[in-house]
Every structure is written in structure tokens, then in C-alpha cells.
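pasting for ref. prot 1 ->
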Amino acid sequence: MNWDSIKKIAQDVSSGKVTAEELVRRSFSIIDETKDYNAILSISKHRALERAKDIDNRIKNGEKIGSLAGVPFIAKDNFLTFDTPTTASSHMLENFYAPYQATAVERLEAEGAIMVAKSNLDSFAHGSSTENSAFGPTLNPIDKTKVPGGSSGGSAASVALKIAPFALGTDTGGSIRLPASFCGVVGFKPTYGLVSRYGVVAMASSTDVIGPITSTVEDAALVLDVMSGKDQFDGTTIDRDTKTYDGKPMSLKGAKIGVVKEYLSSGIDKEVKKVILDNVEKMKAQGAEIIEVSIPSISLSLACYYVLVPAEVSSNLSRYDGQRYGLSDATAKNLDESFEKSRAAGFEAENKRRIMIGTYVLSSGYYDAYYKKAQIVRTKLINEFEKVFKKVDFLVGPTAPMTAFAIGQNVHDQLQMYLADIMTVSANLVGIPSISIPAGMANNMPVGLQLMAPQKADRALLQIAATIEEDN
């Protein structure tokens, strides 16, 4: 059973047509029915029901509830939340209960949304398939033999499985858009800093972005509208658009859309390429001006990403030392042994791999050779994107070079696993907004169409995405 739009759900709750408690219990029921997909790690049974009853009582008393009144949602399990542990899908934080909530969650709840559960992810958000979770992989909702993408695989699967109308994800190099593509839903990565990262377990602080995963672009816009804006607890946040992020379709007539040449070259599945080009033709038929553009440094973006991000990962994960909070090995005889044993047991293999890479590229003698050069490439990439956006309004291409691959297929081939992000990492490196919307099917699996816009053009990006979505 499909959910109505978020706007209609909130209207129905506010009018008394349906109760918030009924919606929360519906989510709980679907969670129970879809357990075998392993999309959900924990359920907020007590607090969600208490909040639902409170909202229903306030409505009966004539009080006005916000724009998300009674709407259930899923939070990726790297968001700090009350009533449930925040594990980041790791043994390191397996029993960690946060003393406060993430700003994004607080803002959603202030508008009446109800967090019902926490979703599975690659441990500490390190991965592209949700196979790196300490609590087992999530299965793709369309084909259980396939991965849902990562790292927000549990969130994307939850929306595709209709557990809730929307879910929260984090996107450091494609972790919202890739699973959205693989699961056939909408995944939006805002401009860097538009949504506060306060209260979210950090991966790479210069590229981490918070965003929604939904069934429609309109729903994504509504959730973004609630979450966005400056936050006193996150100094990287920026001012939001003065207008509402509404996700209303816009006319494509006269819009200049750049097709990124590098995204459609060798290495892309031919069926995926066909779906993307078919969509480009539809845009052209609607009056858009299609221009082929080249961003030469895109070919270096994945290598650049896997130098800079592990460097930040190694720094951010150093706080998990077995002393202050999280897992601590009680058998250790001294401090060094405590560090070693706690981290050995608490981190997954991919976490350790990224810590080692990051520590290496930051070490004496290698900083200039790797980290500094990667920062130069990042700056070059930013300049190339700025140059292209003087010619076009939006960029288009595939979200991923392939459809969802089989569970276990790339577990022992890290290069192939990392290549799943080859078309998404550049948007994070340059800080621009990007969205993945369902574009069609290839190899009997969903294909995501990726759209990008200049920094702070999130509103326009959502509008053009809604127009293209309407035509599919």
C-alpha cells in the first residue's frame, strides 16, 4: 500500500481524517512484515507512540501542528536520536544512546514528524552497498539477491518498501543518490552546508551532507524546506533560499542542460546509457537546449576523493579510543592495549582500511605527494564546474554506471566497489546540489538520472527534477 504525499498525510492528520497513532502503527506493521530485508536496526516504539498520541490530542484541542503533522519517518542510524541507540552500524557504538538529537531530527519533529525507526547503513557510512554493516547487509527491495546501494541503503530500502513516506540519509560521496538509484526512489543531496550536520556521526567533514530520500521530488522539497538553514551548532551552515523549496515543476523551454561527456564514455553499462539518453531526448522534446559539455578533471575525481576523504575519516575516527564512550575492552592491561583491542573489535574491515589510507596520506613525507595534490585537483574541479555553469543551467548524467549488483559480487574487489561512486563524488568535492530520480529500468533494475546545479540553486534543481519526474 502506497503512502499519500507528505503534504496530504499532514493535512489528513491535521483535519482528523486519520490519526498520527494509526500512521505510526502502520509503519511498525510494515517494519515487521519486511524484517527479512534488514533495512531497520531499531524501532522507537515507546517515544513514537507517545509523540503520536500527543499530536492527536493537540489536534483534538484545536491546536495547529506543523507542516509534517503525524508523518512517520526513518533516520539513518548515524543520526543522534532519543529512545533508540545510535550505532552507525558498528560494534564500536552498538550500545550508545545519545544525550541529544541531531538538528535535522529536531527540526522535523518541531513540525510534527515522528521518527519511528533507525535504518541500516555501511558501518560509519563507509561503503557503497550496505554490506559493510556490523549487523548484516540490507537487501534490495526489487531483487533480494542485489545490494540496495550505500551507505544509506537501509534508508532507501525503507522508502522503497513503504515503511515510511521519507527517510534521512547522509551523502559524503554519493551515499544518498546511489542507493536511491539502485532502489528506484528519489535521493537529494543539497548544497554543502544547507542542512546542519550537528548531531550526525561525522565521516568526512568537508563533504558530508544531510538530505532526504523520498518517493517523489515534491516530498523531498518539503522535507528539505523544514531541515534547511543556519544552525548555531554547525559553523559550516549557510542561509537557505528566502522562497519555499516547493518542488513544483517548471517549464523546460529555454533551459540549458549540459550532458556531461565523461559520464557517458566507456565504463557505463549500455542499457543504463540508453535509459539516460532516452530521458535527455524527452527533455529536448519539452524545449530544453541540450549541450554536450566536458569537465576534464572529473576523471580524477574518484582518486581525489579517496585521498581526501580517508584523511578526514582517520581524523574523525580517532575519537573512538575506548576511553570516553563507545566500546571499551575491559581485558586490556594498559592504555595502548586498550586502544588496540577496542578499535580492533569496534571497527569493521572497511573502517580500518580507510583509517590506514588516511593516516598514510597525511603522514610525514607523503602529505605533499598525496593530500596536497588532491586538494589542488579539488580546486581545479571546482573551477571547471564554475566554468561549465556559465554555459548551462543544469548538468545531467547517470547516477551510477551500473544498476544494482549482486550481494557479495564486489566485497573482495575494492576498486570495483569504489567505482560505483565514480559519477557522484564530484558533486561532493565541489559542494553543489545533486539529485537522483528514477529514470527507467535496465537489466530489470531501476536506473537513476542524476541532475546537478550550481551552489545554492537547490530550489531550481528540485523544480527541474519534478518536471522530468512528471514526464517519466
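and prot 2 ->
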Amino acid sequence: MTIPSAQPETWPSLPLEAWSDTCATLHMSMQIVGKLRLVQGPWVNHSWHVTLYVTVKGLTTSPIPYGTRTFEVDFDFIGHRLIVQTSDGGVTAFVLEPKSVAAFYRRLIEEMEKLDLHVDISLRPCEVAEPIRFDQDETHRAYDREYAHRFWQILVQADRVFKEFRARFIRKCSPVHFFWGAPDLAVTRFSGRQAPQHPGGIPNLPDWVTREAYSHEVSSCGFWPGGGAVPYPAFYSYAYPEPTGFSETRVKPDAAFYSSDFREFILAYDVVRQSESPDDTLLDFLQTTYEAAANLAKWDRASLEGDYD
């Protein structure tokens, strides 16, 4: 008699302190994979060409051009493998397990070369204050299967709800995509108006990249595993440029708050996870923070939003 395995929680717990080492190591591994797409693909506005996407097993680069061929790199957080596939039928993979970032980088390059894929990337991590070159990083070396899997499970749920929220907007809006710089899953709405030049200043990210990303007025939201002044997983929402009065606006749910450190609204993931209806709680947060940004900045909401009632 086969005993069925226990069903995983739909919104599992993810205390940052329990997997911080794995999170930091996985962050660097994702940057390595993301930079393959950055190097090989044509530049797309707001750096949308560098992102990863949530899949039924993990995260994917989606197809990356390589001459007349394409290739794709996938993180599988069910089987715990990194998989490289090509449009001419080539496949190779290796196990995701505790190993240094340097060892991960070397193994990925070796596996890609087996498929006649030769890609040079910048070995300096982005958006971290004290970067260690990927090929020299022996510090980050953790991989906890349970917490990597939980992180992906949360991305699956957030991706699903974010897509529902995105569907309410009919003008320019980003895909729901995973930026490996932060790292965070995000979706961004645009008013259509140009924005003042962004000051830049993000560690190890050229200011021109940031300024192009924020060339136009936005309301953006996402999910982040946490760190610094917010040492726990959280949903966020911000506006650029931030309209007067944004930080004082009352939003839903009551547990959401404005962080002066990050200049954005924060909603702890556990508030969503433990609520009676996580989907509704998260959608309330996304909708009310967007409305705060759009109303205060006098967006033309009638022409920007679809009829979703």
C-alpha cells in the first residue's frame, strides 16, 4: 500500500534567519544565470530582457538567442537541478547542492561547453554592497533543499496573484518577472508620463541603467525574501516619483506600513500567509497602494485601467 505524501502548504513559512545562507548563495547563482540572458539578448527597455520567470518547477531564463540556436537555463526546485537545454535537442544538468558560488560557476560553464555554448559574463555581482567575483566566491556555499523549495512555492503563489492584479491594467505594464539583482518578483505599471531623472546610487549598478529603468512614472510592487531594515520576507509597493502625501496614505490591510528606509509600503509575508484569504489580503495591498500612487499623482485612471468588476 502506497501512503500518499503530505501536501505542502500553499503559502509556506519562510523565516529569513532559517535560510539566510542558502538565500545568499542562491542569489549569486541566480545572478550568474541571469547574466547569461543579459549578455546574449538584445536590450529591452527597463532591463526587461534580463529577468527570470516562474515555472511549474522553478525559474527559467526563457529562450536565449545564441546565433541561429537558442538555449534555456532552468532552476528546478522540485528535483533540485540546474538544467541547460538547446533548440537543437541538447540537454545537460547538474544537482543543486551545497557548493561554493565559484564551484557552481565553473560547473555551469563546463556543462554549457558540452553543448557548444560559450558565453562570457561580467563576474562582478550587481546590487550588493560588498561583491565577491563569482569565480572567487568560496564564502557562499549553502543550499537547503527545503527552504529553496519553499521560496519557489511562494513565488508560484505571488506570481499567480500578481498576474491577476496585472490584468486590471490595460496600458503599459511589465510582465510579472523575477529580477535577480535584488532579488525580487515584480510587476510595474506606467502612467505614460516621463519622470524626473533618477538619482541612481544603487550599489554596483550603473546609474544609467537605473535612470533608464525609471525614465517614466511608475507604480511598482513585488515580493522580496527580506534583509536589512526588513529582516523577513515581505511584499512591497512604491511609486517613482513619489507623490506628496504617499507615505501618509492609509492602505490595506492595517498591518501594512510605509518604510522610510526603503521609501515604500511594506506588508510582511506572514500577514498574508496567516490571513483568512491570502489572495484577497495581497490583492487589497496591491490595489490600495497603487490607488494611493495613481490618485495622488493624478494618473488618468479611466484610460489606464480595465473593467474588472
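The longest helix spans residues 16-40.
The longest strand covers residues 184-194.
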